[in-house]
Amino acid sequence: MNSRQRRGVILLLLSVLCALGAFAGVLVLIGDVNSKVGSQVVAYRAKGDIAPHSPLTADQFEEITVPRRWLSGTAVTDLGALDQKIALTTLKKGSLLQADMFVDKPKLQPGEQEIAIMIDAATGVAGKITSGAKVNIIATFKGAKDTDPARSVIIVANARVINVGKLTSLDKEGDRKGPAEAVPITFALVTKDTQRVAYAESFAEHVRLALVAPGTDSTPAPNERTYTLDGDK
Asked: What DSSP line would sit under 179-221, residue for residue?
């Protein structure tokens, strides 16, 4: 073997050693990353903004994979946990789903009944009223006689909403007036308040909802429940 051949063999050996060294370095780096990151687990994040008190469903979230050690103990890894749940606060798009972000759907308490009525989507709901909210139910009536003033009455104060349905188109017969679209709202009420709501839906000119601020437990005074234009003079 001449000197040129020996140099070629030496260079080849050096190339092999460098390649082995680089490979070993990659293995060390991968091992170090794995030791820091750990195994991957499934989690879920919101596809879009979710309003507070709205029902939660699996199609509102997308599956992602994250390192287990980066996941908090309250992170949800099974969408079955959303069954019969509503959002506790606003969930922003991209938010990682946590167990403390939702609560059970409102349920009937002893002595309560469910009653659902159609509310004008434009003037009565406007997208602000959600399951779990409290509202004042206000009905407007014509005077019993032509000379009697029309009046607005808070027929139920602090009514608890337990479900908000989907926007529905209403069929109108003849010259019947009223909203073209409405939303079915379900309330949990005691018997007397259920009767008041049923009466208002049947005989009132309009029924509207006024959202009550969270944490407000007081009810309107008796002299504040009925309003007439004459009473403002």
From this structure: -SEEEEEEEEE-HHHHHHHHHHHHH-SEEEEEEPPTT------
Cross-strand pairs, 182: 120, 168
Give the start-end residues of each E strand in 128-180. 134-141, 151-164, 168-169
Using a cut of 0.85, tell me whether the model's pTM lies above it. Answer: no
Q: Rounded to an integer, what distance in angstroms lies between the CA atom of residue 181 and that of residue 165?
A: 12
- Integer-rounded Cα radius of gyration of the chain: 32
Domain 40-104 fold is Type Iii Antifreeze Protein Isoform Hplc 12 (3.90.1210)
Task: Write the pLDDT tens digit of every residue in 137-160.
Answer: 999 998 877 778 889 999 999 999
List, for residues 41-53, the tens digit of each pLDDT value: 888 999 999 887 7
Place of tokens 């009046």: 151
